Input
Amino acid sequence: MIIKGGKPLKGRIEVRGAKNLATKAMVATLLGKTPSVLRNVPNISDVRVVAGLLALHGVLITKGENADEWHFDPSNVEVAHKADIDAHAGSSRIPILFCGPLLHRLGEAFIPDLGGCRIGDRPIDFHLDALREFGAVVEKLPSGISLTAPNGLKGANIELPYPSVGATEQVLLTAVLAEGQTELRNAAIEPEIIDLICILQKMGAIISMEPNRVIFIEGVEELRGYDHKAIFDRNEAASWAAAALATKGDIFVGGVRQEEMMTFLNAFRKVGGDFDVHDDGIRFWHPGGDLKPVTIETDVHPGFMTDWQQPLVVALTQASGTSTIHETVYENRFGFTDALNTMGANIVVHQNGLHDESRRVKRREFEQAAVITGPTPLTAADVVVPDLRGGFSHLIAAMIAEGESKVSNIGIIARGYENFIEKLRLLGADFVFEA
Ligand code: EPU
Output
């Protein structure tokens, strides 16, 4: 994209269902005896990757009357050819969640090498340890993982070393049909996880949320299909809000609810942005005046999401003073700041975090901190998108930079932002896109 900066983004756009729920809800269809219907499905490439893998395993996928309504018929689930599955290697992280459902349905599973954004090591040890607790036998192959369950899957007592989103989903998708009871401690409780639990309950599962990150699951013998509207994408919503702030614009983001955005809204207000909550969405705008610096620690829910920091960092380059973002979820999530510095930002990344007595979150081994000093005018540059969220922040940076920037490798952004080119057009951005 060739982007000419300097135009405030103004108008209304809609966010669709969350990437980080819709893809998992699609995997859950494998567990049902009858067809499922998922509405509000985003048109993003991660959804298409999961649809491809489901189809390989015999799930019949059709579209409903509206393009965002998908039907999944799992009546003929079958073992897929390894070579066909392997063709999906490196395309997404979701395939790891096929383990439990495929073991229940077929007694075996082959999972290709995983993809997803390169924002750290992203190991899957919590997933595999949990699956072993259920009785799965895991064999690591030169490419991919093979799993079997010679004695079936049985409920387990599991404590996660960290409230991992993916590992919590892995346990949920496995425990619902496992024999007996499962107790999961130190579980992730992100709104997308709660939405997945709602889906599983619709399917016939018995899952109770207890205080202190404990989830109890009583295994049942069979599940049916579900009909569900996916929760909105909080990450997309926060990205457009940050775009409104950075470009001195005014964006009504339709489909967003306050409840799941509270932590973001507090930070947005502290930086100097304004918002109005409506029944059908939230309007975000720059009210004029200077933006203010903030200190933020990314965290698991209900903390400030790691996926929210990248677009906000662009706005913080325009704040008067020094902001600090501690990244405590991933060990390598500031790569995108190199491009911002090329454009004139003043961002120093401390690879081992910062010593700060007032820290609320205990230092983890791989923590990073970014110190952003502003305001710094940005000037156009040629930048290459490194990952999904970092990529969106590059788009925003180019929108406020003086001159014409070239942002390449934008295909990565389509993994998680539905129709973002069309939405930018609707908001009045000045750009040319060469496919
Ligand atoms: N971790 C392990 N071992 C594991 C699993 C996780 O050490 O077996 C570590 C990770 O390396 C990371 C931390 O635990 O340091 C948190 O990882 P988590 O499992 O919670 O993340 P995830 O399930 O892989 C999902 C989202 C991410 C989002 C995180 C945190 C999906 C497909 N991805 O990842 O979304 O950042 O939760 O909320 O749901 C994005 O949308 O751009 C994105 C990266």
Q: What stands out?
A: The chain has a mean pLDDT of 94. The chain has 13 helices and 23 strands.
